[in-house]
Specification:
- This protein is of the alpha+beta class.
- 48% of the residues lie in helices and 15% in strands.
- It is built from ten helices and five strands.
- It has a five-stranded mixed beta sheet, with helices on both faces.
- Helix 2 packs across helix 3 and helix 6 packs antiparallel against helix 7.
- The relative contact order is 0.09.
Length: 227
Amino acid sequence: MAADKPHYHGHRARLRAKFMERGAGALADYELLELYLFNSIPRKDTKPLAKELIDKFGSFAEVITADPEELVKHKGVSEKIVADLKMLQAAAGRLSKIQLLDKPILSSWSALMDYCRAEMQFEAKEQFRVLFLDKKNRLIEDEILGRGTVDRAPVYPREVIKRALDLSATALILAHNHPSGDPTPSQSDIDMTQKIINAGKTMGIVVHDHIIIGRNDIVSFKTLGLI
């Protein structure tokens, strides 16, 4: 007599069906992660690991954006699983970026916010990004020009403007994250932004905004009257 199939085989089919019939919104975070882990762990019940990772990192989004070194420390998380999770993160970023391409960013503000969240919301260390725009305010390039600690990323205004000139950009949107969760601008954020604005003026480059991404909110310098 053939051996009985592992109990999780039927569960996997039911969870896939639930996802296909009712969508991701019908699944708890651990269920969505469990479903994704089916591809990484084909012959094992993935529910316990999914629940453990959600408990440790906080949410589905925080698991896939977690530091690889922190992920692999967790029992049961292989380098393959880490690579799969990072590919999912990269795919989410690419999908968000597509919404910005070939469109004036200033008229696609919600798409810009979604993209910034996808790329930076759960980063454990501060990073400073610059979105370089052409004369029609379309995205030319998005680059990380500063990586740092949990509360500071070094930024050099001259390097920002030099890169803008290299790309023939005429406008910029600055963005960085606050891993602490509080998106309130610091005095150093304000001072650094002003230095970039001043440096850009001499070259005919406009800074449209500086966006700070926290865990649950986003702050715009323009909205605050700081630009």
